[in-house]
Amino acid sequence: QLETLEQEEQERLELGAHPIERRTHMVSHQHGMTVTKTLWEGEAEPRCWSFSYGRAELRGLLPEGASLLLLRVLACQWAVPPGLIFPSINIEGHLCTSSY
Fold it and tell me: What whole-number distance in Å separates Cα of residue 24 and Cα of residue 65?
């Protein structure tokens, strides 16, 4: 069984003099996982949100990095099983589902 212990994502977009940077940090702990989202817009103070999820909610979780890897494997095999759905975490840090 594979499990995400920790994951860090960073995105940066520069539109003229108004850069936007978004970071996501996910860390597994005894009771589940904590997701922390941080957003910087221009020179403003960063905004931060944190969400915690229990192990039962995260069963089968497919974080973004693992999702990209799975998509590559499925593409190489030319086979996507019908109805393939995984729990994932959206850009706001909330649980949602990903289907392929």
Answer: 12
Structure tokens at 54: 């229990």
Please state whether 74 falls in left (phi above 0), alpha (psi between -120 and 50) or beta: alpha
Query: What pTM did the predictor assign?
Result: 0.71
**DSSP-assigned letters across all residues of 23-71:** EEEEEEETTEEEEEEEEEETTSPPEEEEEEEEHHHHTT---HHHHHHHH
> 35-91 pLDDT, tens per residue?
999 999 988 899 999 999 898 888 877 777 777 788 888 888 887 788 888 888 877
Residues 20/37, Cβ–Cβ less than 8 Å: no
